What we know:
- This protein is mostly beta strands.
- The protein has one domain (3-410): Porin.
- It has helices spanning 3-18, 55-58; strands spanning 70-87, 106-116, 121-128, 132-136, 149-164, 169-184, 186-188, 191-213, 216-223, 226-235, 244-252, 255-263, 268-277, 284-289, 300-303, 309-319, 324-333, 351-361, 366-385, 391-410.
- A 14-stranded antiparallel barrel has the order 1-2-3-5-6-8-9-12-13-16-17-18-19-20.
- It starts with a helix and ends with a strand.
Amino acid sequence: MTSIATRIAAAAVAAALGWGASTAIAGGLGIGTQSGSGTGNAFAGGSASAEDASVVWYNPAGMSWLPGRANFAAAGHLLRPSFKFQNTGSTLPAGSGEGGDGGGWHLIPQGFGSYRLNNQWSLGAAFNTPFGLETEYDRGWRGQGVALQSALKTYNVNLAAAYKVNDLFSLGAGINFQRAELKFNSQTVIGFIEPKLADNGTGWNVGALFQPTPQTRLGAHYRSAINYTATGTLIAPAGAGGRSFASAGLTTPDSFSFSVFHALSPRWDIMGDLTWTGWSHVKRLNVVRTNGPLAGTVPVFITFNWEDTMRYSLGANYKATNEWKIRFGVAFDETPTNNVDRTARLPDEDRRWVAIGAQWRMSRNGVLDFGYAHEFIKDSTVRNTALGGGTLVGHFKNQADILSIQYSHSF
């Protein structure tokens, strides 16, 4: 690799592993923004587009179709979810007010790289944050016994390889090294409670890309679940057993995507994607004490009872000039939760995406992508019982905005 390639790779690693603030911006705990170039298309065609090095994440088989010998991409996303509560009959014994906006601005950095060893083999790496949650309400609000701050952060390194079988077909596979950090707290009538837990896990992914004609590509990609046994500390009042060590089991979902990319003409491309996500792995989070006289008890838990979901997206590109490409996209993202178990920690509902973006080819090898997406999120209802008594009853008005930028370079 050249010296500039080494510097770009180092910067991408530092960004993804050092700056990762996380917030749910897709269905469930998923962070749907995994490339800067994909935002403007609402991430339609993700496993078939093979447009830049971010394909390492979406479908490693696509590395065989990238230009040049080495490819890098560095992306940054500004995410702004909004969750505003409206009370309709809560019976909690303490607190007042609606909690303000549980969302806020967050920065998600990512880095990707690929290198072609020969005509058949390519290697790649992705550094990203695939899952996350961060909601925070005003202290003293009426729902403080249910939720104050909730945070799940993940840091992922995906190492991958691709093999080009022939000019029509390629295969790819990878291994994921992922860290999850979990913290959530509440101010109940018996005192402040906060588990703070973390663990490392591994998973895998496989993909295939088929190009039956020069204008059409079909991509399929599967990513495995990752199991965690997160350990750490539990802060609790003396009346609830006091401070101790604790653990909790957590499983991220597996997923399968099928994408199509087709060049209609020299100026127009169209693309589509279907993604299934196995959220039914997420049923209940039990925080278990692991030491002291109350070892084995479950002082804190969150019931999810989530179901598997589908995401549907369509996109298009218009090549206005040799230097400029305009992107469009729409998507529908199902929520995994339900009206019985939905929690104020993540008041998720079905999401409809509308997206637009632009690509500027700055030079023969350098490309800059911009993207914006707005998520129209259906109003969600909650009915959560707090530890120590009382119920939070009401609904949330939700929405989200995404701003993305990405620089890609081929050598």
